[in-house]
Design a protein that fits this description.
The protein has two domains: 150 residues; 152 residues, Vaccinia Virus protein VP39 (Rossmann fold, 3-Layer(aba) Sandwich), CATH 3.40.50. Helix content is 26%, strand content 22%. It contains nine helices and 16 strands.
């Protein structure tokens, strides 16, 4: 059952559903991800919404949220001091997503421990302390969750960008995916980069001193093709069989293609058991009707790993399946 407002519930206590945060702000935000999220949640234009926050009790997998508040609760409070003390008593890190009562919320946030939102270098080992999320529904009602799906405050991470080295900005989504996994290729790792051109991902991998087999039907940027460890093959990536490549440490794929095509190719790699770490973009715009698309996305989740909408993804999602652990 969907509720139209949690105010109809007791004002203090755990909610049975989850809060889904739409990608409604930032460089990559447009209505596409929000519309997909509404469709996934079965929400009409106005129901169950507080600004960018949607509430739903669905048990279906949801892919298009920037952040999911996994255990939301309501807390009725009298004073700013008491609500800040209550949040601090649960954990250190809290990030607000606000749509009303900004001034009161700023006073609450000023009584919580500071959290740095500065741009990060890459690679950057993300601390494993969880980041909670909160908002005010009215002057005396806090909605919050200590556990969230994204390890980044509000699902957002900014990087110290390199404006000169990479030939495209696509590297930012790879940086985000790898920081989120808390693991990235080591020196000498054998990596396949499918759909590599112009070369932002290959540039990232070569800077990590990996050996990169870059495959694309279009050429790599010259400065990337010349980097140590990079070899380029002009080819249709999907007609390369896993046995043609042999064992690899990582498979990266950013090919523009229908999700089903990617899925079939990945299935072959998993069946061949020649790779354990995957980062693949699932391009979605115009790919399918939305219903068929969510069936395909669900099939990806049956392969293990997770399908998520990164802050740096636009009309696409990312499938991550990484077996290596941060200390390996
Ligand atoms: C989004 S771009 C990749 C950007 C790249 N990851 C980067 O960091 O610069 C998608 C690429 O997929 C390539 N592509 C499309 N179909 C392909 C196929 N069947 N096999 C190999 N590459 C393909 C395109 O030529 C294009 O260069």
């Amino acid at each position: 059952m969907l509720i139209t407002s949690p105010i109809t519930l007791a004002k203090t206590g755990l909610l049975p559903g989850r809060v889904y945060e739409a990608a409604s702000t930032g460089v990559y935000a447009d209505k596409y991800a929000e519309t997909c999220l509404r469709v996934e949640l079965g929400l009409a234009d106005s129901g169950n919404t507080w600004g960018p926050l949607f509430y739903s009790e669905t048990r279906e997998p949801v892919f298009w949220a920037r952040n999911i508040w996994l255990s939301p609760f309501l807390l009725e409070f009298d004073s700013i001091g008491s609500v800040a003390t209550a949040l601090r008593g649960i954990q250190r890190n809290w990030h607000p997503t606000l749509f009303t009562h900004w001034r009161r919320a700023a006073l609450i946030q000023s009584r919580l421990p500071p959290m740095s939102l500065k741009p990060r270098p890459f690679p950057w080992l993300l601390p494993d302390a969880s980041v909670g999320a909160w908002t005010l529904l009215d002057e005396h009602t806090l909605l919050a969750s200590a556990n969230c799906s994204s390890p980044f405050p509000g699902g957002v991470i900014q990087f110290e960008e390199d404006k000169n080295g990479p030939p495209s900005r696509a590297y930012l989504k790879l940086w985000e995916a790898l920081v989120r996994c808390r693991v990235w290729p080591h020196t000498g790792d054998r990596c396949l980069d499918a759909g590599a051109s112009p070369g932002g991902w290959t540039w990232t991998l070569a800077r990590l001193k990996a050996n990169v087999i870059a495959v694309d039907r279009a050429p790599l940027a010259e400065q990337v093709a010349r980097m140590p460890g990079v070899s380029f093959t002009r080819h249709d990536a999907f007609s390369l069989q896993p046995e043609d490549i042999g064992p690899i440490d990582w498979l990266f794929c950013d090919v523009i293609c229908y999700p089903d095509r990617l899925y079939e190719w990945i299935e072959k790699w998993l069946a061949a058991d020649l790779c354990q770490n995957f980062v693949c973009t699932i391009k979605t715009q115009g790919a399918n009707t939305r219903r068929n698309l969510s069936d395909t996305l669900r099939r990806f989740t049956t392969l293990g790993g997770q399908v998520i909408h990164l802050y740096h993804n636009k009309h696409e999602l990312t499938w991550l399946k990484v077996s290596r652990r941060p200390d390996e």
